[in-house]
Amino acid sequence: MNVETLLRKNIKTIRAYSSARDEYKDASADMVFLDANESPFKSNVNRYPDPQQTRVKERLAEIKGVSTSQILLGNGSDEVLDLLFRAFCEPNIDNVITLPPTYGMYSVLAELNSVELIKIPLNADFEPNVDDILKSQNKSSKLLFICSPNNPTANSFDADKIEKLIKAFNGIVVIDEAYIDFSRGESWLSRLDEFPNLIITQTLSKAYGLAGIRLGICFASEFIISVLNKIKPPYNINQLTQDKALERLRNLDEVRNEIKLLLLERENLEEALAAISYIKEIYKSDANFLLVKVDDADQRYRQLIQKGIVVRNRTKEPLCENCLRLTIGTPSENRNLVNALTEIE
Ligand SMILES: *Cc1c(COP(=O)(O)O)cnc(C)c1O
Question: Which fold has domain 253-343?
Answer without folding.
Answer: Aspartate Aminotransferase, domain 1 (3.90.1150)
